[in-house]
Design goal:
Number of helices: 14
């Protein structure tokens, strides 16, 4: 057991948040993570408000534990999503791809915890001024849309800059990552790619198998020229995208080329022509198991690491 401000804030057993991954973070996965003692997240993505309402209600049929919804603020349905979250009294909101500032007061008045995902120290400080409850600092090792700073560099700087709790994300998938995140100043971690390879993640088996087969350099960054880089596994699509990018194609053309490709991989299982978003942690993942087993394995392994660190200190004392 590790009790932190995050476990108290969110009323959860373990300081683990499941990432809000579009097409992946459905009610089935979120409910399983929440039941296992973490905080499950439903991803609203580009879906409509009514889709989200249905997902929330299905989750509540599976668990009475705390959960959250991730809002992609660039979504054309963002306003509807906010309305549904408020109507349904969702306990926690995480946000990405935009500034949640104008919604914070509305959420807070309803007792909804607000936790934005940020890639920089300056944005973390701005979010704290808005009155958010915690910060998810996401390093460039993460899958999907990313920033430039690594988790190792970003988390201690954010932890020094803000007084609210910090959750580390990007490149974390086992006990070693958890202990390292806490050493850097985090009070919780967010896992994405590791939960894709869970039994409850309703993604195509081909998608999971691609992650399991991935080696250390297979998760690459595409779309830097657009200003919105994305980390994916190398495949036919990523190569074609890179060739189009080299021709000087503009952001709109590149966006059009990528539209629908995530669903093609996640739902249809076309992992050559679809976008297989995942983090650099993919090289460490070699099995598919339940969300409960993933969480319990991570925390059972922390004791061994802490004991090893203690023995190193003891060895120095004996010299």
């Amino acid at each position: 057991m590790i009790n932190t401000r995050i476990t108290k804030l969110l009323n959860i057993k373990y300081p683990i948040i499941q990432g809000g991954m579009a097409w992946v973070a459905t009610h089935e996965l979120a409910a399983a993570v929440s039941e296992a003692g973490g905080l499950g997240i439903i991803a609203a993505g580009n879906a409509s408000g009514e889709y989200l309402r249905d997902e929330i209600r299905k989750l509540r049929e599976k668990t009475d534990k705390p959960f959250g919804v991730n809002i992609m603020l660039m979504s054309p349905y963002a306003e509807d999503i906010v309305d549904i979250i408020c109507d349904e009294r969702v306990p926690v909101v995480t946000t990405g791809a935009g500034n949640p500032g104008k919604y914070v007061d509305r959420f807070k008045k309803l007792g909804i915890k607000v936790i934005p995902v940020v890639p920089t120290v300056s944005l973390a400080k701005r979010m704290e001024k808005y009155g958010v409850d915690a910060i998810i600092g996401e390093g460039t090792e993460a899958g999907g849309h990313i920033g430039e700073l690594t988790t190792f560099a970003l988390i201690p700087q954010i932890s020094d800059a803000v007084k609210i709790p910090v959750i580390a994300a990007g490149g974390i998938g086992d006990s070693r990552g958890l202990v390292a995140a806490f050493a850097l100043g985090a009070e919780g971690v967010q896992l994405g790619t590791r939960f894709v390879c869970s039994t409850e993640a309703k993604v195509h088996d081909n998608y999971k198998e691609e992650i399991i087969k991935a080696k250390d350099r297979d998760a690459i960054v595409t779309g830097r020229s657009t200003g919105h880089p994305v980390r994916v596994l190398k495949n036919k699509l990523s190569r074609e995208y890179a060739e189009i990018e080299k021709t000087g194609a503009g952001p709109e053309a590149l966006k059009g080329f990528g539209t629908g490709k995530l669903r093609l991989a996640v739902v249809d299982g076309d992992v050559e022509n679809g976008s297989v978003m995942c983090g650099q942690i993919a090289g460490l993942i070699n099995d598919i198991k339940s969300s409960k087993a993933i969480i319990e394995d991570i925390f059972s392994g922390t004791e061994d690491i802490i004991n090893k660190l203690s023995s190193l200190k003891g060895g120095e004392d004996n010299e």
